[in-house]
Amino acid sequence: MTDINLLHELRNKLRAVIVGQEHLLERLIIAVLAGGHILLEGPPGLAKTTVVHALATGLDARFQRIQFTPDLMPGDLTGSEIYEPATGHFRFIKGPLFNEILLADEINRAPPKVQSALLEAMAEHQITVGGTTRVLPELFMVLATQNPLEQSGTYRLPEAQLDRFLFKIILQYPTLDEEIAIARRAIRAPEGHVEQALSAALKPEQILSLRAQLNDIFIEENVERFAIEIIVATRNLGDYLPDWADLVQAGASPRASIALLRAAMARAFLHGRDYVLPEDVVALAADVLRHRIILDFAAQAEGVSADDIVTALLNVIKVP
User: Fold this and answer.
1) Could you tell me where the beta strands, DSSP code E, fall in 185-257?
2) pLDDT tens across 252-283, in order?
3) Residues 166 and 223 in one domain
4) CA–CA distance from 90 to each of 39, 80, 83, 130, 187 (Å)?
């Protein structure tokens, strides 16, 4: 079986559990290939937890779910050193971050000091506790959820943390036919149907091998320039969209350029190409940028979203 067929098999296995959500399923696989983290935003009941659990099962990866709450402490994520009187030494007890796939459920319910514990892990795949740096699994992926409808008791995620998410995916309610299929499947399925319906399509070491192959994906210089110009334009909005010049407080960082190009390479690979097309960049731009563009209050007053800005920029920047 070819490498691409393995990825399609993974997608098909996820479809055995998830009805619809094709956009999300493709982005999940792209993020796995690109080695990125995902922020999932949507109201309750859209199977966010089920999606993450299904992905971990499909990858045969170690999985841990953490319910983020206001009383969560950094050590609840990283682990901590425990003093053992019998030996007179400290012993480190690993926390949930040492799993390969971490579900951070309702991530915006934890205070900033807990969010800061994720920064090093997400950026460098390591944590530092008690002056000692410990390496996390090579296949380490954070999938975080947040509910946009409940703001009471939540904290705004720091920009530095948002920048470490490859994608922010906005989940939509299913169509009527999809919801009928979901209801039928749920009524007939026993408890634990995710584990029963799924088997591993890939091993973590196979994913790491596929990631290495992304280095062979070719990006033509004009396509590369096109992708990076989109990022730069978010920081100089007045040069591209004069009427909206005052709507953005801060644009995307250079990390966004790397993320967009890396994700475009993964999408090209998934579609069976060894080169990136402008359509790869266009398809992924909103998911890469919507959480990295910090809007001013004026944007909220005018009803302009980050997605609106990305769409407008794609309409004025020349596509190669």
Assistant:
1) 248-250
2) 999 999 999 999 999 999 999 999 999 999 99
3) no
4) 35, 9, 4, 10, 50
